[in-house]
Write a structure and sequence with these properties.
Structural class: alpha/beta
Strand order of the largest sheet: 1-4-5-6-7-8-9
Low-confidence stretches: none
Radius of gyration: 19 Å
Strand content: 5-15%
Mean pLDDT: 96
Largest sheet: 7 strands, parallel
Length: about 350
């Protein structure tokens, strides 16, 4: 097996920097659009053979160093009976939001083998197909909470913050429940065959460092502690939270494009791996623009041990596949090391 990703996450020497892309299975691929059709993502995930095929498609196009299972962070929320749907162009929508202790009581513990067998079957099938590590993932407690409290995507997360600040008891109960669901989901994926897991706390960047440390970090730490496989912790707009996020216990921190990679690494500490951080929008531009920006990321990484090349968020749907193919080759060629 190609173990570059695993070695990089352990900060061990590699023959070249590993590359994978968040949302690498997605609508920028014509074959993805054809297979998924009009299926809701949660519907597609319920069909293991479809999830397997969508996971494998990008690896047929380019020599990526990891596969990421086709799924969604709302899969375990749907699995425990909370009504959620993924609306095209909108995202997760919850028709009956959770905004008080009575609402929190609707969340029950996740029993993965019973509640989401299709998700685990996809991983077991993929394990037989892959020659690179498979990445499983879960939504971070705050990000899951934001969808449940707001009822859908939000620009300001006002209701979520209000609940967090005005009803700390209900907030703690909500975070307890979501941390338990996220951890059970990650552990089950690792047991099924995922070699790496990523915790997407995508919207944690909406918080101040003080609120993050008091009202989110303890639960993120609970999800990530003592996992049986290497872990990556990622959020968007988290430049001021990178230090506290590193304290949650993951092997690597994923960073977006807003903080130069070397500066982000200083905040995280060079005793930890880092993932990132090319702006996804750059990949929709000309190849020369992509090449310049990717070269800057590699220069800031400085060939230090522990760099995983990725975008600063997911691949955008209008990204030319040729740009991603050339990007993978560029990273591998520019970072080739004879002593790796």
């Amino acid at each position: 097996m190609n173990d570059r990703l695993l070695r990089a996450l352990r900060r061990e020497p590699v023959d070249r920097t590993p590359v994978w892309f968040m949302r690498q299975a997605g609508r920028y691929l014509s074959e993805y659009r054809e297979l998924r059709g009009d299926r809701d993502i949660l519907e597609a995930v319920r069909e293991p053979e479809v999830a397997v095929e969508l996971t494998l498609q990008p690896l047929r196009r380019m020599p990526l160093d990891a596969a990421v299972v086709f799924a969604d962070i709302m899969v375990p929320i749907d699995a425990v009976g909370i009504g959620v749907r993924i609306e095209p162009g909108v995202g997760p929508v919850v028709d009956d939001p959770i905004r008080d202790a009575a609402g929190v009581a609707r969340l029950r513990p996740l029993e993965p083998e019973t509640d989401e067998p299709h998700a685990l079957e996809a991983i077991r099938l993929l394990r037989k197909e892959l020659s690179v590590p498979l990445i499983g993932f879960a939504g971070g407690p705050f990000t899951l909470a934001s969808y449940l409290v707001e009822g859908g995507p939000s620009r300001d997360h006002a209701r979520t913050k209000a609940m967090m600040l005005e009803d700390p008891g209900a907030w703690a109960s909500l975070m307890d429940a979501l941390a338990g669901i996220a951890r059970a989901h990650l552990l089950a994926q690792a047991e099924a065959g995922a070699k790496v897991v990523q915790l997407f706390d995508s919207w944690a960047g909406a918080l101040s460092p003080e609120d993050y440390e008091a009202s989110v970090l303890p639960w993120s730490r609970r999800v990530l502690e003592d996992l049986p496989v290497p872990s990556i912790h990622f959020g968007v707009g988290t430049g001021e939270l990178l230090g506290p996020m590193a304290g949650a216990g993951s092997n690597a921190i994923g960073v977006d494009w807003r903080v130069p990679l070397d500066r982000a690494w200083e905040r995280i500490g060079h005793d930890r791996a880092i993932q990132g951080n090319l702006d996804p929008a750059v990949c929709t531009a000309s190849w020369s623009a992509v090449e310049r920006a990717a070269t800057r990321v590699l220069e800031r990484a400085g060939a230090r041990a522990g760099h995983v090349f990725n975008l600063g968020h997911g691949v955008l749907p209008n990204t030319p596949v040729e740009n991603l193919q050339r990007l993978v080759d560029l990273v591998h060629e520019r970072t080739a090391r004879a002593d790796g």
